[in-house]
Amino acid sequence: MMAVRNAIAIVALAATQVAALTPAGPWLAASNPRPGSASGSGISVKTTIKTYNMSVPIDHFHNETKYEPHSDGYFDLRYMVDASHYQEGGPVIILHSGEFNIEGRLPYLEHGIASILAKATGGVGIVLEHRYYGQSWPTNETDTKSYRFLTTDQALADTAYFSKNLKVPGLEQHNLTAPGTPHILYGGSYAGGLVAFARKLYPDVFWGAISSSGVTAVINDFWQYLEATRYFSPGDCSPTIQRLTDVIDRQLLSGDKKREDEIKSLFGLRDLWNDEFASLLLQAQGSLQETNWIPAKDDTGFGTFCAVVSSDAALFASTAHLRQRVRTAVQDAGYAAEPLTSRMLNLIGFVKNTVKQQLKENGCQKASRECLSARLATDDPRHDWSRSWLYQTCTEWGYFVNGASTPKDRLPMISRALGIEYSSYGCKLSFNITALPDVNIINKHGGFNLSYPRVAFIDGKQDPWRAGGTHAIGLPGRQSTPSEPFELIDWGVHHWDEYGLSEDDEEPGLPPQQIVDIQRKEVEIVKHWLKEFKALHARSGGDVEL
Length: 546
Fold this sequence. Notes:
- The structure is a single chain.
- The chain is α/β, with parallel strands linked by helices.
- It folds into 2 domains: 4-20 and 220-431, no CATH class; 49-214 and 445-539, 3-Layer(aba) Sandwich (Rossmann fold).
- It has 18 helices and 10 strands.
- The chain has an 8-stranded mixed sheet, sandwiched between helices.
- The longest helix has 27 residues, at 513-539.
- It is globular and about 80 Å long.
- It starts with 6 loop residues before the first helix and ends in a 7-residue tail after the last helix.
């Protein structure tokens, strides 16, 4: 997204430009190149998995002016297929890759939910790549004009075109196209929203869809993302974060330049503008969505952060000399000196150590604005998933995490100094886009209230992305039915049901019982839908009206 000399700015800025959408997730730092996604080698250990291309239209909507100049061309849309479980009459299970390449979703086809569903139903398992990700590029350039064909509507049309024209080498004798064969969609995070929309907009093509951690409601000023940290942090972490943030804000937002500089200098970041400084404090909280029930994939960053800031013991020798200055800041904010003084010292040590590691990795000599500010970054127009997802957030999806929009009736989880102007700065830098997305482009499909027959919504109770979907905290509950399943995984985070165990990951006690239960339920859901398909097919004499 940006030049190497400004790579630290990516960490800070991307923390505020959240993707579901694993998305691409919010944390686009080089230390975690696939947030919210299983890492995939790109080479399947299963010889039954093959990779193919389908030629699809670059432009499905020649009547819409926003795609001008229109294109009559085609591009190759990649997909991976595992037909090893197929039995005649079985469904096609399509797992949409969303904002990642198909290699990143390969584990789900090898031993995750796509494999589980295909095996249980005698179906063909497929992972379908999204336009402008992986190797599925309609254009060669990555400027704003070339990205005009990167819209949710075009991606949905790709998916429908794919299902209506599917051919699987080796199974040519079977007509696997929709609607004659039931096509069941599955997606996690951004792809979860995508498949729910696909089922609603193309009901004659897709028989059903499972939306896992699906984002269906666009929010531009996405302060709600951090509410999961408020409600589900371990131990005393959440109230500690709130109080430490309050101490910081009482200086940072005082209007007194001396006090502003003092709090930033405690962290060794005096040169940064207030919002740039605040964005660096946000990083650790983003790793909550990266926690995982598979030990090899679990990100322990958030747990470590909470353990550090909740400790009353001084954990960093390098911050001991700051104790009196920190004590003064804590007391000036109206708090007792302890335990917040020790905990603030631990936060300072944690942030300093994190920044120091990032500076070293990116060849920066000191914590200067040149290395740490997105405002001084230079655009890097390479073919890259993070650039494509950034464009989608700038034009349609939003989700700019900030503290300024946090309601006044609660302490924020991140400094109110961080506003949407800096959170969305990458849009101006990379694409010269300064206006926020029109939320109605996506929310017209139903937003928080989206429901449709044979669309299942599965979410994790502790998932930060609940705030952008049908299970958002504060929404009225829904009754889960066979037609419209509505399930919340207790002690579950970001599309946990999508994962499965490889042979290397197997150990007693895994998967945890809540994952066993939800995956069993998903199999039951799909089997129920397939029975409905067969019953309708039998009544109609083979001419199915979906």
